[in-house]
């Protein structure tokens, strides 16, 4: 019985071995599947070298071209006027912005002017006797003397005797003392040097103002300047009077400006040169941030492509016989998103958009716009 069981097991093992060997032979002779080649579709462009303008982008904030910081040179109480001293208040040229109470000082000026008048009147009898030829001149001066107006200039002295006589009576020294007091009296009123707007007010009516105290800021809102820093490479290309296109950061509004000034020195730290762009527009405000596009120069026989298409090895991908290849190029200018290249032959087919994982020898297929084909 045992021998029969062992015989059956042996026969089963032989049959299993035969079937397994047959399967291995069948698998060996079975042809392997051929993987289909993946061809990427790419956007291409044909090179046509032209004249590319080099436009330098620069940012900056606007500042009023004419601005005045208001400081007090005298002390006193700020008197209220017809217009409030508040930010946003407009003033015309010559209009009083600030009036400081000068009643006490005004009385001193009037006293000095009265003393000068009395001094001249006291010498008139002597002038009639000793200098009859100049008496009328000084008499006319007294007649024109008005205590409520600015002290008129002393008559011109025509002889040494007259000069010694008038100077000896301290009239000349008294006159200049009065003029000095009048000059200081004028500082109690601060007038607008030009038509503009008050942008900062640091005092209010009734405040005690001290000498040297800052009172506010006054600007002309009709003309603004923007300071921009440009690379020294383009220092010799910036010219005063050159038109500049400016726009806001949202690219919704554009303004026309011009280069008004160019600094004569280069910043040693940043190796940049400062240019000032003048711009006028009713919608502009001080502190507004703008972007300027300066036309530096034009590059002949060049092309402009996206910066991400330029490889670190200063090469770009080209398409030749449905295969990617690389060629050497010469970058001449970089902007934030673009690069200007030279040494790219006309008619060369280059990539218009970058391809992830691209390499030389990669099989590609140029994209064809079917809509354009139908229209043709």
What does this structure look like?
This is Efflux RND transporter periplasmic adaptor subunit. This protein is α+β, with helices and mostly antiparallel strands and 376 residues long. It folds into four domains: 42-52 and 300-375, conserved putative lor/sdh protein from methanococcus maripaludis s2 fold (Beta Barrel); 55-64 and 222-298, Efflux pump adaptor protein, beta barrel domain (Elongation Factor Tu (Ef-tu), domain 3); 67-101 and 188-219, OB fold (Dihydrolipoamide Acetyltransferase, E2P); 104-186, no CATH class. The chain is built from six helices and 22 strands. α2 runs antiparallel to α3. The longest helix is centred in the N-terminal third of the chain and has 28 residues, at 2-29. Mean pLDDT is 86; it is low at 372-376.
Summarize the structure.
The chain is of the alpha+beta class. Helix content is 27%, strand content 36%.
Helix and strand topology:
Blueprint: H1 2-29, E1 40-42, E2 44-46, E3 50-64, E4 67-71, E5 76-79, E6 90-91, E7 96-100, H2 103-130, H3 132-144, H4 160-168, H5 171-186, E8 189-191, E9 196-201, E10 208-209, E11 214-219, E12 224-231, E13 243-248, E14 254-266, E15 272-279, E16 289-306, E17 315-320, E18 323-328, E19 330-334, E20 338-342, E21 349-351, E22 364-366, H6 370-375
Parallel strand pairs: 1-22
Antiparallel strand pairs: 2-21, 3-12, 3-16, 4-11, 5-7, 5-10, 6-9, 7-8, 9-11, 12-15, 13-14, 13-16, 14-15, 16-20, 17-18, 19-20
């Amino acid at each position: 019985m045992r021998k029969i069981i062992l015989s059956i097991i042996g026969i089963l093992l032989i049959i299993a071995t035969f079937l397994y060997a047959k399967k291995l032979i069948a698998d060996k002779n079975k042809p392997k599947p051929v993987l289909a080649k993946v061809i990427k579709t790419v956007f291409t462009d044909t090179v046509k070298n032209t004249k590319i303008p080099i436009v330098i982008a620069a940012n900056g904030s606007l500042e009023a071209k004419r601005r005045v910081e208001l400081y007090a040179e005298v002390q006193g109480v700020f008197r209220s006027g017809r217009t409030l001293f508040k930010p946003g208040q407009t003033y015309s040229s010559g209009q009083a912005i600030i009036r400081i109470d000068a009643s006490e000082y005004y009385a001193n000026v009037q006293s000095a002017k009265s003393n000068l008048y009395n001094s001249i009147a006291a010498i008139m009898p002597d002038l009639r006797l000793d200098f009859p030829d100049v008496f009328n001149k000084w008499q006319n001066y007294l007649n024109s003397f008005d205590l409520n107006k600015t002290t008129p200039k002393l008559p011109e002295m025509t002889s040494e005797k007259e000069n010694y006589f008038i100077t000896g009576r301290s009239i000349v020294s008294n006159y200049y003392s009065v003029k000095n007091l009048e000059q200081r009296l004028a500082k109690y009123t601060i007038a607008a040097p030009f038509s503009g707007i008050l942008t900062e007010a640091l005092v209010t009516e009734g405040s005690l103002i001290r000498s040297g105290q800052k009172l506010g800021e006054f600007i002309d809102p009709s003309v603004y300047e923007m300071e921009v820093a440009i690379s020294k490479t383009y220092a010799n290309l910036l010219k005063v009077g050159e038109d500049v296109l400016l726009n806001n950061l949202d690219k919704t509004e554009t303004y026309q400006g011009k280069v008004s000034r160019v600094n004569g020195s280069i910043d040693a730290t940043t190796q940049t040169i400062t240019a000032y762009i003048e711009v006028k527009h009713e919608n502009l405000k001080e502190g507004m941030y703008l972007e300027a596009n300066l036309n530096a120069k034009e590059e002949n026989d060049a092309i402009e492509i996206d910066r991400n298409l330029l490889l670190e090895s200063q090469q770009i991908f080209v398409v030749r016989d449905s295969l990617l290849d690389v060629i050497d190029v010469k970058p001449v200018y970089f902007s934030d998103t673009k690069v200007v290249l030279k040494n790219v032959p006309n008619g060369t087919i280059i990539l218009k958009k970058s391809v992830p994982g691209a390499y030389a020898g990669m099989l590609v297929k140029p994209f064809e716009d079917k809509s354009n084909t139908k229209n043709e």
